[in-house]
Structure formats: C-alpha cells, structure tokens
Amino acid sequence: MSAWHPSLYRHWFAVAPAAALRRQPLAVTVMDRHAAIARCADGGLLALEDRCPHRHAPLSAGCATGDGLSCPYHGWGFDRGGALREIPGLPPGQTPPAVRVRAFAAREHDGLIWLRPDPEGANAPSQLVQALQPSARRFLWRTRWDAHVVDALENFLDPLHTHLLHPGLVRRGGARTAMRAELRHTEEGFHVDYRGAAAQSGWLYRLFESPRTLERAHFAAPGSAQIEYRYARGGRVRISLHFTPLGMRSTDVFASLHVEGRWAPAWAVRLLVWPLLRRVGEQDRRMLALQSRNLQRYPGARGASTALDLVREPLRRYWDGEPLPAPGSGHDVEIML
C-alpha cells in the first residue's frame, strides 16, 4: 500500500461537516489531492483543485463569488466548472485565455459534504450512505486518526480488541461468549453477522440497550463502515464511520449515530451516551497512533493473521485495487466474543 490505486479516486469520500462550510471556501484533502469547496448562490456546491494555475496560490484562501472562486493573489476568477472567466487588469474587449482548474464533483448528504476526486466515477455515494437520514441522526462528530485508512477501518470493524482496549465499556475483559461470525460479500463491500448472543457484557449495552435480534458490521467501499443493531422490542441503531485518507498515515473520521424506533432524543444522547462513545473513540485513536508510529520503525512489515481476522483481507484487497469476491460468497468462523 505504497501508493493509492487509481480506481479509488472514482468513489465518494466525506470531507467535511456541511455546517463547517460558511461564507469562505473550505480546504479539503482526499488521498493527497487538494480541493477548495464553496457554496454557490443557488445553494449548490462547487469543488475546484486548490491551486490557481497562475501563480499557484490556494483558491481556498480566496473568495466565493456566487458561481465560482476568485484567487486571493491576483484575483483570477473561475466558474464552478473550473473555467477562467475573469482577470482583473485585462483591458476591455480582451478575452481571458483558455485556462482551467480541475473541477471535482461534490454533494451534500446527511450533514456531510462528499467529494469525488476524479471527473468520472460513481454517480453518488454508496447505498449504505444514502440510507442514512438526518431525521434519525443523533450526533455527528469529526476526528482525525494518525493511521493508514485500512488500519482505521479494521479497528472499527474488528470486535476482538474491544475486551482489551475498551474493558467494561464495550465488553468485559474476562467475559467471552461463543458466537458465529458470518461474512458475506455484497455489491458494495461486505457485511459480517455475529450470531449467538442477544446481549453484550459492557456498560454501553447494559445502560442503553435491550436484547438484540441482529448485530451486523457493514463495509461499503471505499471508506464507509457501520455497526447495526436491531432489537427484539423493535427499533434499530446504526453507528456509522466514514473514513477519508488525507495521506498514507492520516485519516479523517466522520462518525454519526442514527436511532430509529427507540426513545433517544438528541439531548439525552449528548448528555448520557456521547461521553462514553467519545471515550471509546479516543482509546481507538491512541492505539492506532501507537501502531502507526511502530510500523514506521519496521517499514514493509506484514502482520500475521488467523481465521479470526475476518475483515482485514477484504479491506486490503479493495484498497490495493485487487478483484473482489463475487457477491453472496463468504465464509463463517467460530469466535469467542
């Protein structure tokens, strides 16, 4: 994983909370590609490469013009498609040269701004993302993990570390239950069903949940992951994390909690649930930073895996641009959770 596979740029990545985009352009990065995002007068979004082709000043430091961006250095103005439309100081009657800035596709969904870093590719984010509706969202959080995106994704989707890294919060260290993990590949990625236990040993479950009928971990390429719980009394909870690599060792993480069919007003989630979930997130962030720093001491080292490491190989294959297994295929393992 020394360079980004070209196919990755054809997908959509979360780059910022929509509330972070105000009057000034916003600088964002996806896999070492930099963009300036602004809101147009009609409410739509524009995204241009964050570099004026004149003298390479960042367009994100310039101004939104209602239908484009102007450079902060000499005022060159570009429309939302990236075409040069104005050069201050150009004599009347003269037309600006045919200069363009690379334009990216951008859209807004469920409180986040999404960017596709290639002119061609998927028309919209994954179905897993599109299924998330603002009416069910209870919080939205952004953080940054000093880790490769595959390590970050694996951390969220891997339940085996929770006894040690989140003891008592997610699962109790000494309490394990025999379960069956069933991985199935999908059109968008894969999901893993964990069967064999309707309850969990940690405080988060005991304080805020009830017996479950489904515990499912989803991955939707390229960077969306979700833990879904369904309950015997009805209702569904989805914890979603969207991972956007800035570079090889830095990944932005956008987390949300969606609740349907259960009493969970936003104020109660913020007051009671959020402090515990944030603590879990911080524990993961610190461990991933520790892992990343150690990997730099051992360049090229490859991890040893067992059958219990269900998600690592399909994640690696996807991010390396390798062919994926056919939808519906998969395998099962016995696991002690």
UniProtKB/TrEMBL annotation:
Organism, scientific name: Xanthomonas sacchari
Annotated CDD domains: Rieske_RO_Alpha_N
Name of the protein described by the UniProt record: Rieske (2Fe-2S) protein
Pfam families: Rieske, VanA_C
Molecular-function GO terms, alphabetical: 2 iron, 2 sulfur cluster binding; metal ion binding; oxidoreductase activity
PANTHER family: 3-KETOSTEROID-9-ALPHA-MONOOXYGENASE, OXYGENASE COMPONENT, IRON-SULFUR DOMAIN CONTAINING PROTEIN
Keywords: 2Fe-2S, Iron, Iron-sulfur, Metal-binding, Oxidoreductase
Domain of life from the UniProt record: Bacteria
Domain Rieske per the UniProt entry, residue ranges: 12-115
